[in-house]
Amino acid sequence: MQTENKKVLISIRDIKQYFPVKKSSFREEQKYVKANDGISLDIYEGETLGLVGESGCGKSTFGRTILQLYPQTHGDIFFEKDGEMINLKEQPAEKLRALRREMQLIFQDPYSSLNPKMTAGQIIGEGLTAHGLYKKGDTALRDYVMDVMKKCGLDTYMFGRYPHQFSGGQRQRIGIARSLALKPRFVVCDEAVSALDVSIQSQILNLLSDLKEQEHLTYLFITHDLSVVKYISDRIGVMYLGNLVELASTEELFERTLHPYTKALLSAIPTTDVNDKKRDRILLEGDIPSPVNPPTGCKFHTRCYRCQEKCKKEVPVMTDMGNNHMVACHYPLEK
Ligand SMILES: Nc1ncnc2c1ncn2[C@@H]1O[C@H](COP(=O)(O)OP(=O)(O)OP(=O)(O)O)[C@@H](O)[C@H]1O
Ligand code: SF4
Ligand SMILES: [Mg+2]
User: Domain for residue 107, yes or no?
Assistant: First the structure.
């Protein structure tokens, strides 16, 4: 599948992910957390697509649903394989398992996701043996793991060390090596640098950028940090309460912001530029509404400074405002 010379790697169509809320009595009507409430987008091969939004808006759920860590409530996810777009939910378990090797996840907190009883070498090699790519104890496995360690900036003498013997940045490198050892084509980085000091953050971001070039990777980069997402992404999607509200190239999103919510998020980025008088800070008032009972019409209307009657009743649909800049708003900041 080709669009404007860009190859679509993943096509996501109307994804809904509803989690049931525990009922307090059997008479009570079943309610759902609408963590993802109808998201459609294409992810192009070789790009880094950033995904931002406040805590709880459904970013991690979206990443994990694409990886089929849990089945979606509604919608389809197509993954390009040998020139064909295959629908992940229609694949038999064995085929899905093989495809999962090509789609990996890098977590926020590598410490809690690394088994403390396993050495770095065992952790990085575990997926390789589980997928039958190498045999346990094989010298070829050891050589390959050491090769991946070097690529990820880890000295090979660290092969036999345990997670607690590494610093936070090194542990994140082990997490990255574990994912990349499987030679994935698509990687979801979920707050991959959020737990690290700023100086280490930039080292890890540079490593991820270098690896992307060397290994021809495609990233979905989830973060709440707009400075990070601006630095690493080719395109950025902005989420609010389970929906995508704006999607554009990084330059477009920052230079021609169209959605009032995005404007408010961007206005809150700290700046050291004393000449930056252009930016009026827009305070986001009120709490994020519950994803169980989201507001009618535009879900952002309870906090939007541009809200009008129409916004309370009609759901705005994603519309291309030119230059592949999509926005879901009845009264975008620019016509
Ligand atoms: N497995 C689950 N079961 C029930 N509810 C869930 C589950 N996972 C997420 N949720 C709920 O879905 C909503 C979206 O959560 P999610 O973790 O995707 O948000 P997020 O944008 O990644 O937030 P953060 O920035 O804090 O990581 C939240 O209300 C959350 O409580
Ligand atoms: S549709 Fe209305 S309430 Fe929603 S973001 Fe646009 S102006 Fe604000
Ligand atoms: Mg999250």
Answer: no
The rounded distance, in Å, linking the Cα atoms of 191 and 59 is: 10
- Atom 5 of ligand 1, residue of closest alpha carbon: 19
Per-residue CA distances from 26 to 18, 23, 29, 49, 317 (Å): 19, 7, 8, 43, 36
| Residue 46's CATH number | 3.40.50.300
Total count of domains within the chain: 1
Q: Residue 159 domain-assigned?
A: no
Q: Is residue 16 part of a domain?
A: yes
DSSP 185-199: SEEEEESTTTTS-HH
| pLDDT single digits (tens) 51-63 | 999 999 999 999 9
- Cβ of residue 333 lying under 6 Å from some atom of ligand 2: no
252 pLDDT band (50/70/90 cuts)?
Answer: very high
Pick from 157, 194, 151, 188: nearest CA to 173: 151
**Which two three-digit tokens encode residue 106?**
């890098």
Cα 34 to ligand 1 centre (Å): 9
Q: What is the pLDDT of residues 279-308, one digit of tens each?
A: 567 777 778 899 999 999 999 999 999 999
Residue 168 falls inside a structural domain: no
